[in-house]
Each structure stands twice: as C-alpha cells, then as structure tokens.
C-alpha cells in the first residue's frame, strides 16, 4: 500500500481548515501569517494569501468569502474572489478558539478565552449578539442546520444551547455530565456536531465515546463506543448523515455506520493527532489537518463495500425512536435541576479529576442503581419557556432578523451531478491530460506562471505534433482530424475564452478566439468535423462554426449542464433533471442536428442504475451516442433518430471480462472510443482511476452483450454445450443490434451523388454494409438452428421460431435452414420451413399460425 503523504500547508503546529459549501475550495490556516486556498480535485499549488495575523486557531468558509480567527483576538473576513482582506469583523481581548458560520453565511459565532460568545453579522459588523450565560470561556461552537440554535461547548464541561432566532438570544438548555472539563488550549474536542437532518447532535464524551442527543428534548439516544483508546480530537458526519468519522489524540481514525453504530473501518496510517476533519460536500473525499501543519486529502475514503451509504439520500439521525415534538399537558413539567444528579452522579469536575489522577482514585463507594451519568440542567431563570395549558411551547418569532422564511432544520437537498469534460483527467503533480482519443492526446504542464500545452498524434504522417506556451491556463480541450479546441476559466485579467486551432487548410491557417460574457464559464466542450459546441455555467449551449461564426445559442432545459459531445452536425447535451428515488438528480439528454435545426430526442433519461455515475459520453465512429458508467458498463443508443424510440443498449460489461474472472487481476478501464465494432480503452491497474504519464497504451475489447451469467466451469460436456449455446445467443443479439444501428444510419443519412462516390472510393458503401450485417444476423440464427436441431425433436417449436427470425427475403436463407433440418433428420421441421417459405413468396405475414 502506498504511503499516505500530507501536503505541507503551514509551519509545524495546530492547523485548521474549512471547505466552501459548494466543495470547490478548501481554506487552511495555521501558525504562519498566510492562508492557503486549495482547489478541489487539483494537485496544483494552492493560492497563498499573506495575512497580517499569525497563530490562527479557526477558519470557516462560505462560497464567496472566508473568515479566520487568530491568537491575537482578531476575526478577519477575506474575499475568495479577489483574495484580499475585506474587513476585521470583531476584535477580542483574548485568543480566538473557534468560529462557526451560520448556514446562510450571514452570521459568524466567535468563541474565545473571553467568557462571552460573540455572534457577528458578516455583512454589517456593527450588528453583534452576545451570549453571556456561561461562567467560563467557551472552547467550541456549532450552528444547527437551520441556523436558529447554537451549541456552545464550555471549558467547564457544560454544553449551553441557545435559541438565536432573534437578536435577543435565549438559553434553552444546559447539558452537563457528557463532555469533560478541558483547558481552552487543549487538543481534545468537546464540539457538538449536528446531524445533517437537524433532529439530533453528537457529543464527544469524557469516556471516549460519541453520544447522540435528541434535539426535541435533549435526551440521550444512541452511542458510538469502543472505537477509541484516547479522547476524541475531531469528528464529522458525512453530508447525508449515513456515516460518522472520528479521530482521537492517540492518532486513531475510525469510520462508523450511523444507523448501526458499528465500526466500518479503522485507519492505522495517521502519523499525528488530527485536529480538524471534514467530508467533502459532494465527493468521496475526507480531508483533515493535524498539529504538524499538514493537510491530508484522502481520495476514495469510504471503501467500495460501503460506498452505497455515502451515495444514499439524506438519512435520519440515529435516535432510539421518533422523538416527541410536543409536551403532553399531563406530563411533569421540567423544574430547576441545578445540582440534581441522575445515575451515578458523575459531573464534569469528577471526570476532569479522573483524567488527572486516574479513575481508581476518584471511584465512588457505591454506584447508583440507574447507572446513568447524564445531567440535564434547566436553570429555571426564565430563559426557557414553560409549556402552556395545552402542553405546547410558544412558537418562535417569525419576524426576527435573518429569520424570515428561514428553512426548516430538516430541509433536504438533492445530489446533483457535477460537470465534467470527457477524456480529461485531474491534476497529478504538475501534469494532466486535457484530451485522450483515437486521434491523439493533449496534455498540459503547470509552470507556475503559465502552462505549456503539448498536442501529439498517433498518425504522425498525417499531422505533426506541436507545443505552445499557454498564458490562459486552458483546462479543457478537444482534438480531431481537423483541429484542436481549448477553453479556459475566467481569471482576474480575462474572461472565459474558447480557442480553436485548425491543423491545416488550403489557405493560411487562421486561429480564432472568442470571449464569453463576464461571469460565464465553459463547463464542457466538444468538437466535430463541422462545429464547436460549449455548455456554460449560465445554462447556455453555444454553437460555433469551425471558423468562429456563432451559429446558435440557447438555454439548456436540464440544468446545471453536465457534459456534451458531437459528431458531424449532431450534438448531445446532458444535464441534471428531476430527482430520483435515491435522492440524486436524473441525468437527461437531448440530441439535436444543428444544421437542419431538428431535435431527435428531447430531455430523455440517461439510463444509469442507482448509485452509478456517468464517466464519459462520446459518439461511435458511425455516429451513435455512447456512454460509459462507473460500474464499467458501455452502452450505446439505439433508434435515437426516431423520437421516443431511443433505447440504451449494453454493449459490454467490463466486470464480466475473462481476464477478470476469479479475481485474476485488479484493474479498471478508462474509456477512449467505440470504433470498428470494438471498445477502445486504457487499462488502469490496481486502484488507479485515471491514466497518467508516461503515455499509456491503448487496448481494445470485443463487444459482449450481457445476456446471461457466464458458465463457471466448462470441464464437462454439458457445461461446454451450455457455454456454446450462450455464445451463439449473444452473437445473435449483438449482430442484430449492430445491424439495426447501421440500417438507421444509412436510412437517415441524406447523401448526395458526389458524397456517395467519395465513400465508394474510400471503400465504404452503406447499403453494401447493411446487406453484409444482415447476413451476419442470419448466419448467427442458422448456427442457433443447428444447435436446436442437435438437441432433439422436443426443440422443434423453438427451432421454428428461430427460422421465422431470418431477415433475408430472397429465400436463400430459408433454403439453407431447410438443409440444416434435413441434415439432422427433422422432417416435420423441414415441412414447416417450406410452408414458411411459401407464405413469404406469396407475401403473407409470418405472424400467422404455421
């Protein structure tokens, strides 16, 4: 197993970070006077912002800005767009220990060594809310999902729950006996982490466990125990709440199943105690920082065996049952519980002494019968409202600042497919591929101040390789026999740019560039023999001629756009549609002919199974749309030129390849093209997901339609016969599909006499090709007929059915079928075949009874 390597982010010492909610950026802060901004999915060097403060102990980020807190007491806001400081939101007289950003990014809670918690408006720093009900300093703070409740974890071992639905906060609960007493600079975590569904939160207890509390009545429910030998230092829920990850001061890292509270995996490759940890908002990535200034970004953190949990929709919090949201009028009213102890009477002070002196030194003489060490503390000071006569509490004010139309804490969000460029790979080191296909490949190198782009061809007699300096930092590219196409994201000194470079022309070669409107960015790019297609962040599909003339621009129906592909005048665009049963948006595709201004398929569904992702989309060499999914299945679109008749046909399931049988090899496949009736790809060994340098070799596989399970053992005669039979059946289905695709192409292609002559000179004639493929279908049927005749008379009806499927209408194939029946002495079958031949000769239908 490869050694896990961290990315040095700051000088050795405590380091903290935050993802932006959209997952595009990761912001780190540490001991030195700099903040680093990493781009998700890129191995490029991070952007560095020099800041006037040092010894940073907290960082939170929104999509447009981030906030850091330092030991000097300054809480400063910076822009992610300009990479510059915007303002100092607040200054504390003591070190800042933690920050929490509200879900709407309008408020930031500041915990410091002062006794007060300050909640500052991020747009107007003059608006400050003070929380003053605690007697010691607060170490960590956390907003719930709705932003109306704040959990303040105090160094005295008490969690203070505040309602902040208005600018007059109310203390609604004190929870004692769970978290331990800690020093403000301790690496031990006492942070409350709210479950994504908003109905519960989890707390790291002094017993090295994670205790789940219900939001409705603050009672204890499920507990995550047995995973750690030291105090918890960091914890985080997965975005859907199905998984929990925890780390401890003894360099432990544990992944839990939230529903069962069982350990799914323990990681033993952590070198230093983890201080901050987060799942990526969308991808299977876990990041964490430690006390040595390092950032670790673990790709594919959740193992494949449990990936379904991460990809599921929003899960319920692990509660014992449905928590009551109303208090019965007959229920005992909660009175003042200050000093009242439940269970064994453990308090935070006793846990703190246990840590100092050992548990035996403070062992009680007698344990309580209940064995419950949980203390609930309503201070009875009027902060929490009493139930009314109906047993219900008053509703929270609806007109408080920033609370109008606030989303409920259990608001659900669908999982949206991210945009991608087919044939491109992410950064690895300072290199990445921008395009890989059968024409050649395009790769780029990051030179810090600029990029260098290299274009290489497989056929170097037809085209010469070239290389150029790239000041625009192109991140997408396409390549074909006519030219190369590039696009770049917007930057401070230029908008998003599309650049086309033809290989050669009969006149002087003329490159062209076009700039998109400000704020608009290319999300995917495609190049055909006749046009350039780009989908953009504004939801537009932009079509250009190969000479830069804008042909069309229209708003894509299914947004956000995911990707696109093109062949001749045909383009396919794919975007996010309605939400499916698994909580993920369904991908929808549209196929247009831009020259004829015709739509063949409009907003039809891309056939992906639950839990799979689209990895690539492209046209075959005959112009049929193809997709490749994360399960390793290649599918082609049949009858797509007829509205509402399109079907996704599986051509190959790479998981069933003979080379993978019995676990012989561990490999996956990077799709490149479908050409010459074969799947062209790059073999990826082990756990690799993307091809890398040096340039990998191309491999190709024959199509194999998954019609039945493979025969596991072919040692005896029966298994050999079964395997032969299934092989013939697969050959028939495959040849029928290829025949159908070719027939659709020829029937729907309006070729002129001159173009037909050019095709003949190239050795291609559409009708001849269709006739040849029809004979292949009939040949497969005759082989199946022979197998059925060999099996015996009881297979006569199936044999006759096979004969009726023969496509030849000249009678030659029926004559051949009769000879097959005669060879095996199937006289009755031969008579039926002759009757069928007579009916066809008379023009009667095959559907009549024989």
UniProtKB/TrEMBL annotation:
Residues 728-841 form the WDHD1/CFT4 helical bundle domain. GO terms for cellular component: nuclear replication fork. Keywords: Nucleus, Repeat, WD repeat. GO terms for biological process: DNA repair; DNA-templated DNA replication; mitotic cell cycle. Residues 386-404 have a biased composition (Basic and acidic residues). The keyword Secreted does not apply. The keyword Glycoprotein does not apply. SMART domains: WD40. InterPro entries: WD40/YVTN_repeat-like_dom_sf, WD40_repeat_dom_sf, WD40_rpt, WD40_WDHD1_1st, WDHD1/CFT4_beta-prop_2nd, WDHD1/CFT4_hel. WD repeats lie at residues 131-172, 225-266. One of its GO terms (molecular function) is chromatin binding. Residues 7-295 form the WDHD1 first WD40 domain. It is found in: Nucleus. This is Uncharacterized protein. It comes from Pseudocercospora eumusae.
